[in-house]
Design a protein that fits this description.
The protein is of the alpha/beta class. The chain contains 8 helices and 10 strands. The longest helix is centred in the first third of the chain and has 16 residues.
Length: 288
Amino acid sequence: MSKIQVGFLMSYDYKLLKNSIPFVYDHSDAITIALDENFRTWTGEKFKVDNDFFEWLKKFDTENKIKLYKDNFYDSGLDPMENEVRERKMLANSMGIGNWIIQLDSDEYFVNFKEFTQQLKRRNHYLINPEKNKIQIAGFYVNLYKYTDDGLLYVSKLRNQKFATNYPNYKVGRNTRERVIFVSNIVVHECMSRSENEIKTKLSNWGHAHQVNIQEFLEKWKMVDGTNYKTYKDFFYLEPEKWKSLDFVKGGSLKECMTDLSKKNLKPSSFFLAQKNFGQWFKFLFKS
């Protein structure tokens, strides 16, 4: 009990797992990777996985922590978000209730996973009778927007995201709509920092596929670069105003960019976290 269990969703962008798994490997007790047995996305589209990925996975897993969980995660009677929630619940059940359940996507990279697990362990009392003590633990995204010739554009404002829970009754994505405890941990999200074709694939197959105007998003994405980004605003793919502005960090690789981002002290302040956590505590104070 009280183990750190990490689940990954494996799909068309599975190669990014080579980036994301190493960030959490050392400080997780078990890692489960969910892969549709028919290689279908949440919209029913087919994808392929090269055999050399599984060879890499076997070679990388020196401590035998990683399990591949194959099942049928696509239901033609559900929309993409409903299929996402369905898969997340199935993955969580496979991981086992009673421990900390962390779910990540292939394109999410923890800056300091050890620190995040310490935050969870301080709250192990929530693992006692979790059905009556439902909780979510949220960190903060740095959303990556676009690689340039000499660096990376990222969204200026951090966005909170739920990563862990003691009771995975997901309602929308990873959100269980239960009380949230916010911690200061940062996760770099390789969201739109991809090729044009990769973005098209992502926006056509993920949980929000039925809500996105792909062409409209791409028209702006193609125009923005490291020299003119300050002249544009409103970059989000669903409600553009949610990503008001971009910032820039230099670097020739993802690793270099992440190192530079970590030096920028992007973490939210203790006062901000205290406000958010008090609000959540009060909101759920009288809920059973």
